[in-house]
Amino acid sequence: MEDEERPALSAPWEHLLSSTVSPAAAVAVRMSLDAAAADPAEPQPASPSASGQQNGGLLGSFHKHLPFGRLSLAASASKDGPAAPLFRYRQTRFSSRRVRKRVIFKNGDCNVVQGNVAKRRRRYLQDIFTTLVDAQWRWTLLVFAMNFVLSWLAFAVIWWLIVLSHGDLEPEHNEKVAAALGRNLSDVDAGWRPCVRDVSGFASCFLFSVETQHTIGYGSKHTTEECPEAIFVMCLQSIVGVMIQAFMVGIVFAKLSRPKKRTQTLLFSRHAVICQRDGYHCLMFRVGDMRKSHIVEAHVRAQIIRRKVTKEGELLPYYQQELRVGGDGEEEKIFFIWPTTIVHRIDKWSPLYPLSASEMLRERFEIVVILEGVIESTGMTTQARSSYLPSEILWGHRFEPLVTFKKETGEYEVDYSLFNNTYEVDTPLCSAKALDELRQAHGKTDCGPSPSASPGGPGKARCGLRAPPDSLELHSASGDSNSEDAPTVVTVTSPLDAAGPESRI
Predict the structure, then answer these.
(1) pLDDT single digits (tens) 177-204
(2) Are 241 and 280 found together in one domain?
(3) Same domain, yes or no, for 179 and 275?
(4) Does 245 share its domain with 363?
(5) Where would I find the Inward rectifier potassium channel C-terminal domain in this sequence (predicted)?
(6) CATH of the domain at 325
């Protein structure tokens, strides 16, 4: 009988509330109808007894869809009623390499493997410079060392063949060879002119090759004008040695100065948030730069990757759609001197427009965010990437400010310990589309209560964008409060406000 005495909700309000029953890992709420006419002893809808009796109702769906592995229960005492369970989102830390079905890892690496590529090795060798730059350091250093060793050995063989064909290694032409063989040194022809002096074997040829390529020249070994081929090989080896050094130094320098390493000091917030800004649902995330050297011409892009079925029935499993994002003023380019909150307004052109808090939990998509700009110190272009899954979007949260002015030093200080911190704010759990339809139905284009009207006054509709601290009131119809068509008031309260406004990650 008590349930029948409660004011019945109109069909649009039932549909609106049934589609917004569970937040996307954000503010835990306690729903209640107008308690003015209710019995104080009657259990509130947020209590376990009330929620257990509502099969498929408001709190029944709330308990069903919330991920309890991320929630903690605590008793919150109420002045007007018994203690009610408190649902708080427990933000967990995770590794960027945790196994998840995502395209871009949190650290910016792409989770894409190229397979079954025809002539893969030939294609990589055709662009050997990029291949070595992208390779790991151990392979680059191995190629670096092998290039020099192989060139030394190759020219050592050439020098050995030259002196061998000219007869420089014969005992009668070389004192060292004669002494090694025990020959009489008086038999050595003192007038013989070798191609390379002081060479007695392959080891001597190898040492001469190293000395020639790197212009060491220890003094005793040198070529003569006796053999033109020796002069040509000496010039050729000098040129080849310079080319190898230039090539390998270029690879090492390119690896050390890669813009990819600059992205290690570009930060993305661990979570994205959805809250109200200027009367619109907005998806927001934060970007920051730890270095004093700034990113010039910095701009941010975002894409959502999701499944889509075309009008012709074609299934696009990884459909990419651009999201319009910008800084505080919604400009694509940002003045990146301190951490900036990037905003995507969820309007009728946004793919998130029809999604409510509960529907976002069931959706499967990935939002890839990209920060691009020119490194001030090197002039090279860099790109930092990250991504957000639906489970990493906090509905009803807002980022904490982290820039303060210090009067003692006269400087602005950025506290990066607050970079990932958020706090809870009152946010409608319905979709942006449902909220716009609600405003149009009541002829209200702006948001928030009228300053000259009372919260429950006739002819006023409060959309709940900036609700009072502990409640959010929605009016289903306008009319006289004394008539039978008095507006039905739905109050949404947040017991987390008593626990404190901050939600630290």
Answers:
(1) 656 666 655 555 566 788 888 888 899 8
(2) no
(3) no
(4) no
(5) 266-439
(6) 2.60.40.1400
From 259, 276, 307, the end of a domain falls on: 259
Give me the phi and psi of 91, to 5 degrees please.
-80, 125
% of the chain at pLDDT higher than 70: 63
- The pair of structure tokens assigned to 439 is 């405003």
Distance of CA 145 to CAs 148, 151, 209, 244, 416, Å? 6, 10, 16, 11, 43
Give Cα 367 to chain centroid, integer Å. Answer: 9
Query: Can you state the percent helix, strand and coil of the chain, rounding each to 5?
Result: 30, 25, 45
Q: How far apart are CA 415 and CA 403, in angstroms?
A: 7
Confirm whether 9 is domain-assigned: no
Average pLDDT over residues 150-167: 92
Q: Which value, to the nearest 10 degrees, does the dihedral of the CA atoms of residues 410, 420, 381, 123 take?
A: 160
Instruction: Kindly report the backbone phi and psi dihedral angles of residue 208, in degrees, each rounded to the nearest multiple of 5, phi listed first.
Output: -65, -35
Position 17 pLDDT exceeds 50:
no
Q: Supply the pLDDT for residue 225.
A: 85
pTM above 0.70, yes or no: no
Query: What domain range is 191 assigned to?
Result: 121-259
CATH number, domain with residue 231: 1.10.287.70
CA 223/CA 229 separation, integer angstroms: 10
Beta bridge partners of 397: 424
Of the pLDDT bands very low, low, confident and very high (cuts 50, 70, 90), residue 436 is very high
